[in-house]
Amino acid sequence: MNPLIDGLQYANWSEKIFRQMRAGGVDAVHVTITYHESFRETVLNIERWNRWFERYPDLIFQGFTAADIEIARQTGRSAIFFGSQNPSCIEDDIGLVEVLHRLGMRFMQLTYNNQSLLATGCYEAEDGGLSRMGREVVREMNRVGMVVDMSHSGERSTLEAIEHSTRPIAITHANPARWHPARRNKTDTVLKALAESGGMLGLSLYPHHLKGGSQCSLAEFCDMAARAVDVMGAGNVGIGSDLCQDQPDSIVEWMRVGRWTKVIDYGEGSADAPGFPPMPDWFGDNRDFGNIAEGLKNRGMSEAEVAGIMGGNWMRFYADSFGPEGAV
Question: pTM of whole model > 0.85?
Answer without folding.
Answer: yes
